[in-house]
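Practice problem: predict the structure.
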Amino acid sequence: MDFTYQLIFLGAWNGWQKEIETIFRARISELGVAPEHISILTSANFDEQYRANAPAFCIYFGAVTAAYPDLEKVGRLLASAKTIVPVVDDLKAFNQQIPQELRAINGYALDGTANIEALVSLALENLSLLRTSRRLFISYRRDESTAAAIQLFERLEKAGFDVFLDTYSIRPGEPFQDELWQRLADTDVVILLNTPDLLVSQWTEKELAKANTMAVGILQLVWPNNADLRYAELTVAETLSQADFGTTDPRSKQGQLTNDCLDRTVGLAESLRARSLAARQSNMISEFSMAAKNLGIPVSVQPGKFLLVDRGPGRQLIMIPTVGVPQAFTYHQSEEMAKTIRTKEVSGVYLLYDHLNIRDKWVKHLDWLDGYLEIKSLKLLETEAKLAGLK
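Answer:
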């Protein structure tokens, strides 16, 4: 089962390529993918090393030129349905810098280092190394930081995140606390607005305790003259200064963050996201492996970040750890993965997920889907009973 993830650079030479590759390799390392399973391809080695049957993500750098480079290679990638992102320094010049073959694809403006993290996240999502749902959870105290919370909500939504903010995100008629815990269980990163009286609210303290239990990463924006909190193993603290609030008062709930501070927060959230998801996935793998070990059942972690359970000839099981709430696209991605790794030895494929804090109606829905789909779901807490039944 040989997995290779291909990051491809085509088009005009671009000064950002090396920095993109450096950040990409750093995120790959945080996700626990061994370097030998990564191929960096350019025009020079594409023909020799490109594998059409392996996951690939291509960045095409645009430029104003009489003859666009690498069009034959672009055609091969498009023919095999690989994702190509046209990158320019200014979207207003998109049609002048990008060849006709790629003009129907939504382009990406790369004009500074702040945008690289988001581009790398896009690559990891398309390679199925990060989930495509991009969920963040803003935890704050309304009496102290309402304006800043709303600013972050709007800026992060604009950056492509699905952001939970209690005053915006729970529909009328939904049970508030149940929905809040589910959204926390399904988030990638908690953004904590660490204001002076944050922990006066018992709900904020409970949110942080839940996030810690679920190994969700926490990005703290620490208000001036405030101390950072160590509520989770994976915590990043960004200490703010008066300059981050411009002329507004950080002590007022109407205090607003500057555009530079908002952009910095987006980059920090992108960076922490990979580490947070990797930590949660590793926890699931460890718990499953321990349950199998208790029963004397061999389990191996494969390069594609799935588990292979060896029950003997023709009885191998594939377990795909799934962070958060399994969605329809999760099933589809898992089915595509299963097609590439399934052999006559594999007798079943399962989505492994942690159902704690997920609402009962969703758990019942997943149980119902098991009666109709080839790929089944498996609750992490039921692992040992499931494996024991297969002995």
